[in-house]
Amino acid sequence: EVGGEAIVVVSGSHSREDYFTIAAHAHDFGLLASAGSDYHGPEHPWIELGHLPALPRGCNPIWKDWTVSS
User: What is the rounded CA–CA span in Å between residue 26 and residue 69?
Assistant: First the structure.
């Protein structure tokens, strides 16, 4: 009702169970899915910058239609 096109499904602060719950919401509401490590500095050593699991099966990644220009 309030709009929006995408939702963060996989994040350094989400559990594996969260991934699948949020992925279901993305599917139900027709939202694109994104991922982010939520790295905010060395004081959070449990988060590895850029090291995330893949989006759950069935997610439509926000970057699917992006092109790389040279």
Answer: 29
